[in-house]
Amino acid sequence: MKHIWITGGSGFIGSNLVLRLQEEFPEASLTVLDDFRSGSFPNLEGYRGDFVAADISRLDWDAEFRGRRPDAIFHLASITDTTLQDQKIQTHDNVEGFRRLLDYLRPEKTPIVYASSAATYGIRAGVNRIGDPLAPANAYAFSKVQLENLARKIREEEPSWKIAGLRYFNVYGPREGHKGVPASMAWHLAGQMLLGKRPRIFKNGEQKRDFVYVKDIVSMTVAAMKSGKTGVWNAGSGQPRSFNEMVEGLNGVLGTKFKPEYFPCPYPFYQPHTEADMSATQRDLGIRPKYSLEDGLRDYFESGWLTRGRPKAKTRKK
Fold first, then answer.
1. Cβ of 1: how many Cβ atoms within 10 Å?
2. For the segment 17-73, what is each residue's pLDDT rounded down to a tens digit?
3. Per-residue pLDDT tens digits for 41-52
4. How far is CA 68 from the centre of its chain?
5. Does 143 share its domain with 182?
6. Is residue 313 included in any domain, yes or no?
7. Can 140 be counted among the known catalytic residues?
8. What is the torsional sign of CA 85, 180, 13, 8?
9. Which residue in 104, 121, 140, 300 is the catalytic one?
10. Which residues contact 74 (CB under 8 A, 6 or more apart)?
11. Based on the domain organization, do 190 and 77 belong to the same domain?
């Protein structure tokens, strides 16, 4: 892969992917395309490639690149705020950005890996398996279902085109702080604890999520490209962990002893359990997650990004 493009490359997962690609393919020419709506330029500290500041849902690809196409493209650009109420903007920008990209890449059938989401499964609890019915509960999830529909349609028209989608689960790790409210539970709870406050979680903290460290997500994303396969796969840890365990893990890395402050869940249809079935991912892409929750939180803390710009915890609380 001599020429690699990454859309959404200044975002949380995107920037981690960009820096990994730069390290793994030092001779490759990298180009990031991003408009910073869901990204932040400090995430790309140390990046040595090209940058195109553009909204890909409105970009004139031919005018910008004059027929030049990469050897591979990772498509992570998206409005990632699931609370955005404007369904038209959420759906238009996410879906049309992918559609226009596919139209431009079609002549060369450039291999593409795109980001889908576990949100496509909806709010039902339990193990999520590829092939399960999809039931998006918000506009963001609906837009990701449409990305998968577009990819499936293209594959039917162009069977030789390698297009892989990954349904990312609950990702946490370095370079997510700029996201604000949509940042992970790990980020928000650590912020409370660093201020000397008890971490607030829903009563009684036994809700479970498939927390997956961003380095594992990046490895799966690269593996999907290297596999040369077409389809959709889960990208999670395969090991659901409780909110209480998240607090325990953060206490361990921050050197604190906070007990959770429980409060009633305000959502009548809150999802109590998410879990990625990773069997197809391991079989088809030849990769499995490396980081447990404890390992991921430790690496997150040691990277400096968990406490970056925040006060240090000075006291131990019970």
1. 17
2. 999 999 999 999 999 999 998 899 999 999 999 999 999 999 999 999 999 999 999
3. 999 999 999 999
4. 28
5. no
6. no
7. yes
8. positive
9. 140
10. 4, 5, 6, 7, 9, 14, 17, 21, 112, 113, 114, 221, 225
11. no
Q: Can you tell me which residue has the tokens 């500290």?
A: 45
* 134/195 same-domain check: no
pLDDT for the residue numbered 312: 67
In contact, 163 and 154? CB cutoff 8 Å = yes
- In this structure, what token pair is assigned to residue 235? 């990208």
Tell me the C-alpha distance between 194 and 260, whole Å: 14
Catalytic residue among 179, 226, 229, 262: 179
Reading phi first (left if > 0) and then psi (alpha if -120 to 50, else beta), residue 66 is in left
Task: Output the CA torsion 270→174→191→127 (10° steps).
Answer: 20
Domain with 266 in it: 174-210+239-273+291-303
Same domain, 156 and 221: yes
The Cα 72–Cα 15 span in angstroms is: 17
Using a cut of 0.90, tell me whether the model's pTM lies above it. yes
